[in-house]
């Protein structure tokens, strides 16, 4: 198998895993959670305090203030940006990294081959998908936002564009034989 075919197989495998994860999350549903954003007055006080410490205390105070950015408060407990980042990496780091690597590989291969996917093509594919599910475009995008937490820009950039790019990259090379169909 050539190197390009191996890469395409890896990319297709990665996208299949991502699609499976999205489908699983869709059918299982997301757990509801609630948290309050940090109070603006506390955030302003923390920023002013950090600024004053930075002016008087140098780089160490600056580094400490960067780690203390509060992203939410839950039952009085503050959650920092650093803590959120660690948890996201722990839970989704490997999958997220695989997705980012695959997207970069697709993009690089498209550049190498001079393949471009226009905004018009992306919009046409979104229209096609909406029609496939018997929905108007805006209702399709609204459903994606409500049920899967995917906004239209994210859907276009993270799902539709890579799908169209892979189709264009693979072209006629991805023809399924009757034997492969039977085995599957």
Written description of the protein model:
Helices cover 74% and strands 5% of the residues. α2 runs antiparallel to α3 and α4 runs parallel beside α7. By secondary structure, it is mainly alpha-helical. About 3% of the residues have low confidence.
Which helices and strands appear, and what pairs or packs with what?
Elements: H1 3-28, H2 40-57, H3 59-67, E1 70-74, E2 77-80, H4 81-113, H5 119-132, H6 137-148, H7 152-170, H8 178-183
Antiparallel strand pairs: 1-2
Helix pairs in contact: 1-4, 1-7, 2-3, 4-7, 5-6, 5-7
Short recap of the structure:
By secondary structure, the chain is mainly α. It has helices at 3-28, 40-57, 59-67, 81-113, 119-132, 137-148, 152-170, 178-183; strands at residues 70-74, 77-80. Among the domains are: 40-81, no CATH class; 115-174, no CATH class.
């Amino acid at each position: 198998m050539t190197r390009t075919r191996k890469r395409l197989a890896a990319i297709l495998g990665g996208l299949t895993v991502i699609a499976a994860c999205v489908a699983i999350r869709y059918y299982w549903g997301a757990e509801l959670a609630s948290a309050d954003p940090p109070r603006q007055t506390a955030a302003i006080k923390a920023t002013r305090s950090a600024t004053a410490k930075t002016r008087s205390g140098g780089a160490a105070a600056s580094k400490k203030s960067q780690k203390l950015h509060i992203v939410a408060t839950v039952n009085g407990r503050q959650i920092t940006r650093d803590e959120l980042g660690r948890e996201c990496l722990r839970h989704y780091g490997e999958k997220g990294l695989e997705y980012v690597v695959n997207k970069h590989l697709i993009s690089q291969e498209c550049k190498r081959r001079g393949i471009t996917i226009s905004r018009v093509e992306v919009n046409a594919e979104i229209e096609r998908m909406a029609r496939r599910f018997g929905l108007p475009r805006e209702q399709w995008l609204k459903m994606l936002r409500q049920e899967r937490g995917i906004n239209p820009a994210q859907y276009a950039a993270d799902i539709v564009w890579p799908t169209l790019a892979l189709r264009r990259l693979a072209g006629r090379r991805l023809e399924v034989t009757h034997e492969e169909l039977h085995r599957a």
